[in-house]
Write a structure and sequence with these properties.
It is a single chain. By secondary structure, the chain is α/β, with parallel strands linked by helices. It has helices at 18-29, 41-51, 65-79, 102-130, 152-172, 190-193, 197-205, 215-226, 250-254, and strands spanning 9-13, 33-38, 55-59, 84-87, 133-138, 177-184, 237-240. It has a 7-stranded parallel β-sheet, sandwiched between helices. α1 (18-29) packs parallel to α2 (41-51), α1 crosses α8 (215-226) and α4 (102-130) packs parallel to α5 (152-172). The chain is globular and about 55 Å long.
């Protein structure tokens, strides 16, 4: 499945760690040329090295229009085409409302939402020229579906991505370009590990599968959205959370029993 993707080119922003690294590795395994974009060139090149000779790294700050245009130009120069953009770059610093500053809010919105917009805008010329393209945004369940104290700015940015996606998908449809979003729940990444064992245990307790997801779970969904087979799917968000948003309370999970 998805054999038609081999030889095409994907740009993965925020590709040096966590979900982005998982997406870059999965697309590389599917035979795509992969441009791994991160703020640190060394980190981007490290992940590209893990993928193989059909991958390379690039340093860019997605909040800067010149940087986004530069990574698109680099993909065209190195691989001759841009077929897929995985707009994954994002940050999630915690700050509750009584201490959050305007600068805190702007930093998250600029990176997560403005960065998405600028990344998408940078690849449109190449995709429109081929009249084919796949854009996959990394949103979240936090904001569009759920909330968590300290992440009101993060949640706002992730909900904004989906609002942006729905209108952008309409605008891009005449060129054969789709735009969809993966919406991860709690995924085991370096960032989540940093929140501590107690936090992780509480999150696992709220998930019907009693475990966190892996980056490969998100990467596989992104690969589907990027495929030829998903050409009639656009403007959609896919929740990938192990059923986390389904129970109305922890009591519902306590009532489900075990598989023994």
């Amino acid at each position: 499945m998805f054999k038609a993707l081999a030889g095409r080119t994907v740009i993965v922003t925020g590709g040096s760690k966590g979900i982005g690294r998982g997406i870059a590795q999965r697309f590389g395994a599917a035979g795509l040329n992969v441009l791994v974009v991160a703020r640190s060139l060394a980190d981007a090149e490290r992940v590209a090295g893990e993928i193989g000779p059909h991958a390379s790294g690039f340093s860019a700050d997605v909040t800067q229009v010149e940087d986004c245009q530069a990574f698109a130009a680099a993909a065209l120069e190195r691989y001759g085409r841009i077929d897929v953009l995985c707009a994954n770059a994002g940050i999630f610093p915690a700050a509750k409302l009584d201490v959050m500053t305007g600068a805190d809010f702007d930093l998250v919105m600029n990176t997560n939402m403005k960065g998405t917009f600028l990344s998408v805008q940078a690849v449109l010329g190449a995709m429109k020229a081929r009249r084919w393209g796949r854009i996959v945004l990394t949103s979240s369940i936090t904001g569009p579906v759920t909330g968590f104290p300290g992440w009101s700015h993060y949640g706002a940015s992730k909900a904004a991505q989906l609002g942006f996606m729905r209108t952008a998908a309409i605008e891009l449809a005449p060129w054969g370009i789709t735009m969809n979003a993966v919406m991860p729940g709690n995924i085991r990444t370096e960032g989540l590990d940093g929140l501590g064992a107690d936090y992780i245990a509480k999150m696992e307790a709220s998930i019907p599968f009693k475990r966190l997801g892996g980056v490969e779970d998100i990467a596989n969904a992104a690969l589907f959205f990027a495929s030829e087979e998903a050409g009639y799917v656009t403007g959609q968000g896919m929740v990938i959370d192990g059923g986390q948003i389904l129970p109305e309370s922890l009591g519902a999970l306590e009532e489900m029993g075990s598989a023994d």
